[in-house]
Amino acid sequence: MPDGFSGGDTAFVLISAALVMLMTPGLAFFYGGMVRVKSTLNMLVMSFIALGIVTVLWVLYGYSLSFGTDAFHGLIGNLDHVGMRGIGMNDLNGTIPVTVFSAFQLMFAVITPALISGAIADRAKFSAWALFIAVWVTVVYFPVAHWVFFFDNGHGGWLGDRQGVIDFAGGTAVHINAGVAGLALCLVLGKRIGFKKDPMRPHSLPLVMLGSGLLWFGWFGFNAGSALAANGLAGMAFMNTQVATAAAMIGWLAYERIKHGAFTSLGAASGAVAGLVAITPACGSVSMLGALAIGLIAGAVCAAAISLKYKLGFDDSLDVVGVHAVGGAIGSVLIGLFATGHVGQTAKGLFYGGGFGQLGKQAMGVAVVATYSFVISWLLGKAIHKTIGFRVPEEVEVAGIDQAEHAETAYDFSAVGASLARALSSPAESHQSAAKSTAQDTAKTGVDAR
Amino acid sequence: MKLITAVVKPHQLEAVKAALQAFGVHGLTVTEASGYGRQRGHTEVYRGAEYTVDLVPKVRIEVVVEDADAEDVIEVLVKAARTGRIGDGKVWAVPVETLVRVRTGERGPDAL
């Protein structure tokens, strides 16, 4: 390997990339448990499909647009690495191979659109969603990743490298970006049938807890891995992640206990995720006490923010706005207060004698990414809605979209119904092979049961 | 003969079953049920959204016994199902006019 290569750093970032990959199925379960039984599978697949589509696009042109040499004023990368052209096994990015860096960043690109899906749970047409992911990462995520994550000695992305907006692991590029896109999409699609009238309770809180646990675990790769080296900064980011998450869980539960009289498991899981979101941009620039404060604030504020949808009347099904947009904004802006100047970055926040400079930059970063993401996501969503349609027909939504969109159901409740269906089936059907008729009965029961 | 129907808490089913078996009841039918009594259901909170859950899960146990045994069976059943907390359920009995064992065609108490 060439000079400067570090086996330790490379091993660490490879493992981190694998951890970040696990966040997407973790998210799938987190979201999947929160929807009703009839739409569980669709919720899971909406995340899984991101692994398919974004990976392919990343290799084709995503990496190049995000991390290729800047093509225009820090706004977008060039096309030199289309198809990963020109990237050899031994090319380095710092102390790790470019291939490893690319794998790590790919996982960020995968989970970001998956995060959006929670805002439009229960009602999006799967084909429209797949198309949305493909276009959205191309026109929103890849450029924004370039703005925030691409560093080239002052010739890199305009927000991070040129303006000095701090986003260690994706508070703006990932969470505000996805949260605001979620807001745009749920406005385009409209409310679920029965919103505010019918009970829409989570169908499986154990799944939610499992998903949030996987997210928490994977998030160490997300945040500590963003040091791109197995060093003290990675350790600091790791601890900050843990501290903020723990504090946010407590913050959310405290709010919930005061406001609603109970410590709920969904609150614990949601608080943890809110803390993970908020500390993401800040984990490389604040002290552990700063992380603790950010977590507590994020937990309580996000818990309050999720009621916005009832007050303002938009149906963000699984609170992507309240958790990711608000949590991401809290973490990004609080860097302007809590950055010590001694962790990863030299920029100091207001509380550490840095004045209002960094606070202003952080607020600007949040505003820019939120505005860009909202406008483009809304236009894209509207274009899809007007052409191929973004929403399933009413009868499909009422019945649950698993059967209609995926020809499957998440759970088999057909033990009683299947024998009834068998008893009622026509003689012609009863001559078919046992396996086939069993499958048919199950499918039929799925329909009948609704 | 009497049909005794009990709607009780699901987790009391095993205790009721064991008690009826010990008493000598030969068979019973169990179905899942949901409902509420005077106390209604309960409130659940999910991310701040409060849902009133009126219909709570119950099991419905049905046994047919001879008239002479009815009071004793009711007593056994009530004792086994009781937890002393709200929502323990109800037990009632109604007369049965006809009872047929499907396999043999026997009727009346012989079919029990």
Word description of this protein:
- The complex is a heterodimer of chains A (450) and B (112).
- Helix content of chain A is 68%, strand content 1%.
- Chain A has 450 residues and is mainly α.
- A 4-stranded antiparallel β-sheet of chain B has the order 2-5-1-6, covered by helices on one side.
- Chain B has 112 residues and is α+β, with helices and mostly antiparallel strands.
- Chain B is elongated, with a radius of gyration of 17 Å.
- Helix content of chain B is 23%, strand content 37%.
- Chains A and B meet through helix 8 and helix 9 of A and strand 3 and strand 4 of B.
- Chain B: Keywords: Nucleotide-binding, Phosphoprotein, Transcription, Transcription regulation.
- Chain B: InterPro entries: N-reg_PII, N-reg_PII-like_a/b, N-reg_PII/ATP_PRibTrfase_C, N-reg_PII_urydylation_site.
- Chain B: The modification O-UMP-tyrosine is found at residue 51.
- Chain B: This is Nitrogen regulatory protein P-II.
Q: Could you outline the blueprint of secondary structure elements for this entry?
A:
The complex is a heterodimer of chains A (450) and B (112).
Chain A: H1 7-34, H2 40-67, E1 92-93, E2 96-97, H3 98-116, H4 126-149, H5 158-162, H6 171-189, H7 205-224, H8 232-260, H9 265-282, H10 288-305, H11 308-312, H12 320-338, H13 357-387, H14 394-399, H15 401-406, H16 415-424, H17 427-430, H18 434-448
Antiparallel strand pairs in A: 1-2
Chain B: E1 2-8, H1 13-23, E2 29-35, E3 42-46, E4 49-53, E5 56-65, H2 67-81, E6 89-95
Antiparallel strand pairs in B: 1-5, 1-6, 2-5, 3-4
InterPro entries (chain B): N-reg_PII, N-reg_PII-like_a/b, N-reg_PII/ATP_PRibTrfase_C, N-reg_PII_urydylation_site
Subunit structure (chain B): Homotrimer.
GO molecular function (chain B): ATP binding; enzyme regulator activity
